[in-house]
Amino acid sequence: MSVIQVEAQLSTEQLFKAVQQMPKNELEKFLTRVMALRARPPVFRLSEAESALLLKINRGVPEALQKRYNALIAKRQAATLTEKEYDELLRMTSRIEKLDVERMKYLAELARLRKKSLTGLMRELDIKTPAHVQ
């Protein structure tokens, strides 16, 4: 392998001049590596704010709350829900709706950061509107 002396900080013109000095076989190897580098998909890095928002967006409903909610919905559909359970279901529904509102706030903030529409961001992240909202 040829060794070419160059300055520590190169302009593109300086780099081109250095490449011009390479023997043909080294130039071919170098170009192959440059083309492979160019063909690589770009590395997408999230900002700290985006990472924090995505963690909050993906948090979801706590598992225990979701299980109990599903059980109460099943009892309501089977018409076996007691009055006490109905009150519990109403409180849980309110809590889940508040979590959904918070999630939408985080999604809207992420959309603002990325300069996209909310629907465009949701499409990009493959986030579907819940069936009960449609």
Question: Keyphrases for this structure?
Answer:
single chain; 2 domains; 134 residues; 0% strand; mainly alpha
Overview of the structural elements:
The chain folds into 2 domains: 1-43, no CATH class; 48-124. With 134 residues, it is mainly α. The chain has helices at residues 12-20, 24-39, 48-57, 63-77, 83-113, 118-124. Helices cover 66% and strands 0% of the residues.
Topology summary:
Blueprint: H1 12-20, H2 24-39, H3 48-57, H4 63-77, H5 83-113, H6 118-124
Helix pairs in contact: 3-5, 4-5, 5-6
What's a quick, concise take on this entry?
66% of the residues lie in helices and 0% in strands. The protein has 134 residues and is mostly helical.
- Percentage of residues in strands: under 5%
Which stretches of 5+ consecutive residues score pLDDT under 50? none
Number of helices: 6
Secondary-structure-derived class: mainly alpha
Secondary structure tally: strands: 0
Rg over C-alpha atoms, rounded to the nearest angstrom? 28 Å
The sequence of SSEs as H and E is HHHHHH
How many discrete domains?
2
Largest sheet: none
Specify the overall morphology.
rod-shaped
Rounded to the nearest angstrom, the distance between the terminal CA atoms is 64 Å
Helix content: 55-70%
Mean pLDDT score? 88
